[in-house]
Amino acid sequence: MFRFLIRRLLIAIPTMFLVVTLAFFMMRSAPGSPFVNERQMTPEVQKVVEKKYGFDRPLIEQYGRYLADVVRGDFGPSLKYRDKTVVSILAENFKVSLWLGLSAILLASVIGVSLGVLAALRQNRSIDYVTMGIAILGVCIPTFVTAPLLVLAFGSILGWLPLAGWRWETVAGIEFPAWRNMVLPVTVLALPQIAIISRLVRAGMIEVLRSNYVRTARSRGLPEWVVVRKHALRAAILPLVSYLGPACAGLLTGSLVVEKIFNLPGLGKFFVISALQRDYTVVMGMVIFYAALILVLNMIADLLYAALDPRVRLA
């Protein structure tokens, strides 16, 4: 286990270095400037502003200074939001994305696994066709289509849920998001994941149900639910474990479309705004944060895979 963690860490370091390098030079090569939308500045004032943020130095020197700051955990100040650092922006807005992402992935896992198991147990029957047909629709229809449709149906026409916005509620001294504001965005985020998870679990379950050890368990007279829960399901969800690593990272860092449509103060919305405003440091910080999250969650997925499959050994 220790050797595995050390090896993954040694792989993660050059990976993060490559991410920082590519993101830095791609952002600097993009047309435009973070100071274009500011009020008209004289050449003297513009030189002072560029000197303040180090833009007057050679590009390779800027890269070296930024790389040194990142190693110390300093992503620099925002170029658009005054008196705010990139770290403070990440800390303030990640909480919203965290609630949305965790809620969506939990909902998708519970419903997706249940539908996948049900479809596998009723393979080539009507319930299997209906479940997989819905799953295909969930994969094919993008979130920028389902989100406005749900807003129109449950927000505008029925008036059951708020159209947009985010609100916190305090319960027993602990701050929680208002559930009414979470229903629509969480549902939109979860629907494609439910479709993908159900198909993964169905395929894995069908393969496992045909294995010799499941036939042996059935021949011993065990009830079907015991065979499924204790013997088949553990092996059937192995592909799901591998998939959930990057999927969780994507949901936890926020959905660009969903947060924009529902006007949620999450990382996805700030990423879009910062990219349009050429706020280099904020975009860079979010890219680095997202890459680090993917590496960590993939490592956790590998550990869970080894725990579920005794044939896998971490060396």
**Overall SS class:** mainly alpha
Number of helices: 13
> What coarse outline follows from CA principal-axis ratios?
globular
Distance between the termini: 6 Å
Main sheet attributes: strand count, strand direction, barrel closure: 2 strands, antiparallel
Radius of gyration: 24 Å
Order of helices and strands: HHHHHHEEHHHHHHH
- How much of the polypeptide forms β-strand, as a percent range? under 5%
Q: Please mark out the parts with pLDDT under 50 across 5 or more consecutive residues, or reply none.
A: none
Helical amount: over 70%
The count of strands amounts to 2
**Averaging pLDDT over every residue, what do you get?**
80
Strand order of the largest sheet: 1-2
Explain the overall architecture.
The protein has 315 residues and is mainly α. It has helices at 2-29, 43-52, 59-71, 86-121, 126-140, 143-157, 179-209, 212-219, 224-236, 238-252, 256-261, 267-276, 280-308, and strands at residues 168-171, 174-177. The chain has a two-stranded antiparallel sheet. Strand 1 and strand 2 (174-177) form a beta hairpin. Helix 5 crosses helix 7 (179-209) and helix 12 (267-276) packs antiparallel against helix 13 (280-308). It is globular, with a radius of gyration of 24 Å. The chain starts with a helix and ends in a 7-residue tail after the last helix.
